[in-house]
Predict the 3D structure of the following.
Amino acid sequence: MVKKDLGTAFTPQNIGKVKIENRIVRSATYLSLATEDGQITDDLIKRYEELAEGGVGLTITGVSTVREDGKQLAKMMHNFSDDYLEGLTNLAGAYHDKTKEIGNNSKIFLQVGHCGKQTTHWGWQGELISSSDIENKVINKMPKKLSVKEIEEIVKLFAEATERAKKAGFDGVQFHGAHGYLINQFYSPYMNNREGDKYGGSIENRAKFTVEILKESQKKVGNMFPINLKMNGYDGVKGGLEPNEASELAIIFAKEGFNSLEISSYIHEASLNVKIPSLPPECQINVRQRGLEAFNLKSAAQIKEKLKQTASTNIPIILVGGIYRLEKINEIIDSTGIEFCSMCRPLIRQPNLPKLWRNGPPSPEAECIHCNQCMNEVLRKGPKCQGVRCIQKEKEERKRKKA
Ligand SMILES: Cc1cc2nc3c(=O)[nH]c(=O)nc-3n(C[C@H](O)[C@H](O)[C@H](O)COP(=O)(O)O)c2cc1C
Ligand code: SF4
């Protein structure tokens, strides 16, 4: 029995046809624990079992790439042929077995994406692709502008990856359409300057790549299998996507049939602005000290308000970024109608945080201090990183042992 004073956060809510037992989501988190050629490992599975046990309503996995040139970091999951099906099946199966064992019914969606021109020196080093031939100013590389035929091929790859997720036993998929990656490179007015075809110009045209991925995927998996999107509420660069246009996009995506939208922010070029000091900028640093709790709330609430205006577009919204208190989650859900709150870094440090909260009150704040050492480690070490983990906690433990 859930105690009443834990609030709406511990009540169920559907995404499409799938019931999610509570409103706390693990936001997609790349863990650098696949093999160098993208296969699932036991260490990776173990991390997901911990999350299943930890009591989130829904886990969204780290991104799995639909093609080799879509990989931006080392030891990232691949999802571009049936060679990866067995590993993906083992991952989904282990997660479900764990939830059955403890009876919490937590669900797992596979995240699917392509980095486009936003790779790093640990990722794809060949020719970069994008909606347009506009330089990536973080790495000073010019991508090739995709032809219509090449776009259609990538759409097909996303649909096949979705079908593979379903075959593997995941409860749904989420496309990574935020943070400046390929999908974002199509709908953003800053990254898409195509002219003369259906993928550039108007907002409807810039949304087309995403919508075609959705439609092709729906053909493969039907409408019982939730298809979801993580998108930006703003790009954080001059001339980029702003919340007003993001709300219009959200309406298009909801009308076309996405089952939920997770609202995030920033493209990597935003980190060139000194006022946005974190790399990657979607992981804002020192959230508490800088007063950045729930830093995407304003844009997500605006999008929710717009979606609410028509029953048919009122799909669930997941808010991500700088969330660390149960009290705040309840306040957000109750005051805005946003259905879910997701966390990444707090659950790297404490995969059992939802269980701790559920066993409350008291419901302590997350221990994560948003220092980004977990991310810096993987950016610094690449394939030598022993998996994304809480470096701060390791430091604290070493200090305690010494004392
Ligand atoms: C180590 C690490 C890996 C991440 N991997 C992904 C990913 O695979 N896909 C994605 O959409 N976002 C990824 N993110 C971004 C998070 O999902 C989230 O949007 C961001 O960290 C803000 O949430 P937080 O404040 O709760 O950490 C990652 C973030 C970190 C720190
Ligand atoms: S290193 Fe630990 S405390 Fe720092 S952001 Fe990562 S999970 Fe949070």
The longest helix spans residues 148-168.
